[in-house]
Amino acid sequence: MAAKVITVTSGKGGVGKTTTVANLAAALAAEGQRVVCIDLDIGLRNLDVVLGLENRIVYDLVHVVEGSCRLRQAMIKDKRVPELYLIPAAQTRDKSAVTPEDMVRVCNELRADFDFVFLDCPAGIEAGFRNALAPSDMVLVVTNPEVAAVRDADRIIGLVEAEQKGPAQLILNRVRYAMVERGEMLSTEDVLDILAIDLIGVVPEDPAVITAGNLGSPASLDKELLVGQAYRDIAARLLGRDVPFMSLKPKTWYQKLGTFLNGGDTK
Amino acid sequence: MTSPWSAALQLTVDKVLGRKHSATNAKSRIRALLPYDRTDLNPTIMEKMKDEIVAVIGKYAAVDVDRAAVKMVLDHHSQSLTAEIPLRTVTGRTKRPDTSPA
User: Fold this and answer.
1) Cβ separation of A184 and B38 shorter than 8 Å?
2) Do residue A183 and residue B8 have CB atoms under 8 angstroms apart?
């Protein structure tokens, strides 16, 4: 079976692209899928720390592209799940060290042996974005319910369509249920109404993502977390399962007590 | 700490009173912005375009220049221009432009 190459992009920085890649890749690998993620932010690598693999880097993507190591040598294996690998970005080079053709070649080499290849796109619409788009089979656009992020998402969606890599699918990240209820945050419906693309996931804002980042362990591996469930649901949708969108309404203390007394799982 | 009930109630009360929330503001700002982002146009160019359209139509009819408007309309992934060029009526007209078609 040939891998599906999924580009995760946003336009604006800081909306949660890298976190999304780490969580989806980990969730899919936990399901027994063979997954590779590639950090394309040459010069500003992040995915290694989000996955907690920063101490094991020897070779990186630029070494692979330049032929100074074999592809397998640059792939760092995550030991928490069966088949999850990271190809880190180079930290001391710039984006011109990799071309779109290089990325097509690398991804084609990976296709035969894996189920999913995730490309973590750098912010912006420059060279790094072109590199991440060239080999893509599917584009996930991450945005937040904020004016600047939605505006940039719209621009990216247009560029993805212009490159005939669309239609992109949307992940709305960092939604605060209580603020949406009060009318102080754009709702999922508002954002979909503006961007007019298909939704593949809504992820609540959760301090647990910060904690997970501190530990270098994706939240999607924690079965107790609502935010982890949101990522696992997206992973399931990527596997073609029809998963309903969960309610982001936080559980009340008596609901939590109820599940606790029933001894059931808290999801 | 607000309960979901009180938040819902507050929202209903605000709706009845016609109070605007910041999310409504955010949405309308994005909707106003996107057509320009998508087309590389800006309000200055739009104003210039309006003046030129008014000038062309003005060669054949008396345009009410002050009320003429060219607007951008956003509809999902397509956008269009809508020009509204009010004309002065023949009855009660002040004067026709004295430029005759060349």
Assistant:
1) no
2) no
Burial status of residue A99 (CB atoms within 10 A of its CB: 0-12, 13-18, 19 or more):
middle
A181 lies in a domain?
A: yes
CB A25 within 8 A of CB A52: no
Number of domains in chain B: 1
Report the percent of chain B where pLDDT is more than 90. 38
Interface of A with B in 184-203 (CB under 8 A): 184-187, 190, 193-194, 196
Averaged over A139-158, what is the pLDDT? 97
ipTM: 0.83
Domain span at A204: 4-262
A265, pLDDT greater than 70: no
C-alpha separations of B59 from A101, A252, B56, B67, B100 in Å: 55, 69, 6, 17, 7
Tell me if B4 and A249 make a contact (CB, 8 A cut-off): yes
**B97 belongs to a structural domain:** no
Host domain of residue B79: 41-91
What is the per-residue pLDDT across A188-223, written as a single tens digit (0 to 9) for each? 999 999 999 999 999 999 999 999 999 999 999 999
The CATH code of the domain that includes A258 is 3.40.50.300
Considering Cα of A234, then A217, then A115, then A109, what sign does the dihedral take? Answer: positive
In this predicted model, what pLDDT tens digit does every residue of B47-75 receive, in sequence order? 999 999 999 999 999 999 999 999 888 77
